[in-house]
Amino acid sequence: MAGRISVSIAAKLWLLLLNLAVVMLVSAAKSRKLIETNMVFYMHDYETGNNITTIAVAGNPKKKWGILEFGTVFAIDDPLTVAYDRNSTQIGRAHGIYVNSAADGSDLHFLMSLIFTNKAYNGSTLEIQGADLFFLKYREVSVVSGTGKFRFARGYALLDTAFIDIPNSNAIVRWNLTVLHY
Ligand SMILES: *[C@@H]1O[C@H](CO)[C@@H](O)[C@H](O)[C@H]1NC(C)=O
Ligand SMILES: *[C@@H]1O[C@H](CO)[C@@H](O)[C@H](O)[C@H]1NC(C)=O
Ligand SMILES: *[C@@H]1O[C@H](CO)[C@@H](O)[C@H](O)[C@H]1NC(C)=O
Ligand SMILES: *[C@@H]1O[C@H](CO)[C@@H](O)[C@H](O)[C@H]1NC(C)=O
Q1: In CATH, which superfamily holds the domain spanning 35-181?
Q2: Using CA positions, which residue lies closest to atom 13 of ligand 1?
Q3: What is the pLDDT of residues 99-108, one digit of tens each?
Q4: Ligand 1: which atom is nearest the Cα of residue 50?
């Protein structure tokens, strides 16, 4: 009888300790502070000329594929630089796709990873998704997640076109990105 009571007390104590451990883990997670990081950089998107960064890979079979043509899908490997100059210091690259997703041709839907190679965020990535309504002066896309230093990241980026040459499908887009992360 006495033996059975002490077993159940031990079991209760064990459960109590387990609960405490769980509570402590949860509060440790809560006490980690979110950091806000802001960065401005330039994305170089070249379909023609030397060192092409963007290729049309699919589209409407009845039309000529292009950035203005609904349904055209592009694969990209765009350099991200600190300044407008294509030869300025590179901080990473944008890998992924964009697709013209508006019947009137006005929206390039972005779906891409920003892969950082600069000292501060080397190897970390941010995931971008959103509507690039590129006829607007400023538009906003979401930062939906991240890896490395940007785990649990969430945020947004304001985009504006610093340079555009529609006939040759070349553009430089300025990004002003704000992200919350641990
Ligand atoms: C193209 O890439 C090559 C090799 O990386 C580089 O030497 C050259 O400067 C680049 N050209 C332009 C216009 O960026
Ligand atoms: C970048 O460097 C390449 C090779 O040195 C050069 O041909 C090109 O004109 C430069 N681009 C700019 C925008 O300065
Ligand atoms: C980034 O990481 C790679 C691989 O670990 C390394 O080769 C490279 O030198 C690093 N770059 C910087 C700027 O720290
Ligand atoms: C970047 O965007 C923020 C708003 O998110 C704005 O306050 C800030 O002035 C912008 N910075 C630059 C350099 O454009």
Answers
A1: Allene oxide cyclase-like (2.40.480.10)
A2: 50
A3: 999 999 999 9
A4: 13
